[in-house]
Amino acid sequence: MPSDAALxxxxxxxxxxxxxxxxxxxxxxxxxVPWGMIVTGVYDKDAARWxxxxxxxxxxxxxxxxxxxxxxxxxxxxxxxxxxxxxxxLLIDLLVYPLVRNADERVPDSATxxxxxxxxxxxxxxxxxxxxxxxxxxxKGIFMVFRGKDGIVQPPEDPETPQYExxxxxxxxxxxxxxxxxxxxxxxxxxQKKGAYVAIGTVDSVRSAIAQLPADRASAIIDFVKSVxxxxxxxxxxxxxxxxEAGTSSExxxxxGVTTLGTTAGMRMTLVLEPEKRVSLPLxxxxxxxxxxxxxxxxxDQRGGVVLxxxxxxxxxxxxxxxxxxxxxxxxSNVQTVETDSQMLLEGVTLNEWDAQTAxxxxxxxxxxxxxxxxxxxxxxxxxxxxxxxxxxSADLERIRVYLSFRAADEIESIKRYVAAVGDAKTAxxxxxxxxxxxxxxxxxxxxxxAYRPTPDLLRKLGLPADTAQLYREGxxxxxxxxxxxxxxxxGGGYFGAVGAYAVYRFGTxxxxxxxxxxxxxxxxxxxxxxxxxxRTAAVQHIVSxxxxxxxxxxxxxxxxxxxGQGGGSKKPPKKPPAQxxxxxxxx
Length: 588
Prior knowledge:
The chain is an alpha/beta fold. It is built from 20 helices and 18 strands. It has helices at 4-17, 22-50, 54-73, 79-103, 115-121, 124-136, 162-179, 215-228, 275-279, 290-301, 317-325, 363-371, 386-393, 411-422, 425-430, 456-462, 509-517, 520-529, 535-544, 550-559; strands at 145-148, 184-189, 196-203, 206-214, 240-247, 254-263, 266-273, 305-311, 335-339, 350-353, 377-380, 401-407, 432-444, 450-452, 471-473, 477-480, 483-486, 495-506. The strands form 4 sheets. A 7-stranded antiparallel β-sheet has the order 1-5-6-7-2-3-4, with helices on one face. Helix 3 runs antiparallel to helix 4 (79-103), helix 13 (386-393) crosses helix 14 (411-422) and helix 17 packs antiparallel against helix 18. The longest helix is centred in the first third of the chain and has 29 residues, at 22-50. The protein starts with a helix and ends in a 29-residue tail after the last helix.
């Protein structure tokens, strides 16, 4: 039903058209009617779906309509000039909505909107017919469509065959992954329980168990996914990578990256939703504060040296490394990466991928070989062993920049681990140029977060100014028609998406002297004196700005970043279109 704002503008149009020449009125109507159909039939419904302040948008659309009408009716311009101007105003109004809407963090990247999308939205009947066609091809009980990398749709299995039950199990897992907004699903053996597998989903950077399966069922599920993704089902040893598409209809498929690996305990499988989008975020979308962005820019511009890139496990390390590498101009300089499990090909960057099961040489030897090829910048995605650190520290670091990435709980532990791996503190410190460390926090849901006034005692504990008037906490509920209901955006969780909290340190002569001496207390004091934000302090600033909550920072800082709990239960997902995933963030 058309919005009140659009109806009001229609009445204004009807009154004004009586003052115009009939042909001016006809041409303007030809411009106005499609505009009104898109605004009321597509934009208004889309704004309601994503909770984008419909009233504000409708008022804006009405203002655009009145201005366009005023140009035609009131402006002292001939029709041949006034009508194109009016049409341009309406067109600009149509273009502004997708631009602002796509930038809103409540709208996931997978739901990008364009004018073409709007025009397609004016043809619901065609869409409905296609969806019915999809349903007609399905077998009872099968509600998902799978398409392999070759574009071939997996045909429905016969209900009388064992493969039918396996397909249903796969649909249950992937359906649960999508409806819960999980960006990653891991299926792995339970170390303490022989013959059992656990499915672990990652939602807004937090990992938790969502189901337990017997080993034979899990193995059959992995084989089914490998088959659809075009991988060798009989290869149960090597790391295999592929991709497939899945969804409730052939018109609503999402990409899933598939990685399988044989271990002594059994096969492991990881499914990643839209893998390229998850690791291709620019630095200014990771959560770095303004001064930190400047410091990163200075680090990248500085030639040579080693920069440590660290996070706890599953806390966005790959995304962080890729974002730093992409700051280098790969077309005017020689930029390379050495990786054990590449997530995407970086434009202009030479990838050197190492597989432990097939490689003829050690990872550190590959690193040494790359560093001898006269590169300008090298991203080493893992400190696989101590020798890797030694190779990085012994390169021509006066002109070669090395980004050495590895897991560490915090900033000082990162430096200690690198120094210990090199084996000589002075050698490690000599060319240590900087460090970028971080971990992920869940974002508060913008639709239901609750403002409150912090107590003076709380402000003192956080080290915040006494005049801080407002902080936010998770909500989970909203008022809909004067009734409190579960927030439809975050499904009552209170959080939607993730943001990083980072420390960006640039090391000069004084810092390197303290690193060489192993005086960590003095180093921390010097970093504070130079007003470098620690990860914890950066997280507190996200609290102040309303991005996250005190409770979330406490959880993230105390959890080690590895897991959000091991709750269980296998619940069959509803047979409905999967919910859109949260905005792609740094979660790899």
